[in-house]
Design goal:
Shape: elongated
Strand content: under 5%
Radius of gyration: 17 Å
Number of strands: 0
Largest sheet: none
Structural class: mainly alpha
Number of helices: 2
Helix content: over 70%
Distance between the termini: 45 Å
Order of helices and strands: HH
């Protein structure tokens, strides 16, 4: 996945690759519904992880002030 496609983030490319691989196993899969569900889960997880990183960095800066 080293090639970049304009307009698609690395995350979106990874989701598409994942959906492609699952579709090979489950050919009757509703691709759009599955992609949307996976995309929502991934973005929620990324948002949550980014929120934790921000709180961690705030905690560290509080520690430095003491």
């Amino acid at each position: 996945m080293s090639e970049s496609i304009p307009g698609k983030s690395d995350t979106e490319l990874a989701i598409e690759a994942f959906v492609d691989s699952i579709e090979e196993i489950h050919p009757n899969l509703d691709r759009e519904e599955f992609r949307d569900a996976i995309s929502t889960c991934v973005h929620d997880a990324l948002d949550s992880a980014n929120g934790e990183e921000e709180s961690d960095s705030e905690d560290e800066s509080d520690d430095e002030e003491e």
